[in-house]
Every structure is written in C-alpha cells, then in structure tokens.
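To: structure subgroup
Subject: Chain for Friday's discussion

All,

I'm putting the inputs and outputs inline so they're searchable in the archive.
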Amino acid sequence: NQEVVPTKKIFTKENISPRLKCPICYDVFDKPRRLFCGHTYCKECLKGLMKPHKNPEHVPKCPLCRVDIDI
C-alpha cells in the first residue's frame, strides 16, 4: 500500500479566480466593499471613484454596470 499525501495548493496572483480580483486595480481584493448593484471593489479603489469631480453635477457610477453609487 502506498500512502497518498495531499499536496498543498499554492495560490499566486496568476492562478487566483478572477472573481477574487478587483475590476479596477486587477489585484486580489483588499478590504472588499460591495455596492448595492452587487459589484465588489477594493476600499481604496472605491475611494478613488468618490473623489470630487470638476463637474459638481457628477454622480459616481459603478464602473461595470454604470448604476449610480450612493454615497
């Protein structure tokens, strides 16, 4: 009888599922935040979307579905 030894899965940035990556920075989520539309982004990436805009009428939108982001 041979003993079966489980191998450890090594996760790298290349083999992590795209569902675990932020669509703004393309890195693994860091402090993920989910919007009401269901899309998830890193906290810092969302902060970048919320920065004041030149146009005072500008409303931040989800980069994937373009739904307004409530502040």
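Points worth raising on Friday:
The beta strands are 32-34, 40-42.
Residues 10 and 36 are 33 Å apart (CA to CA).

D.
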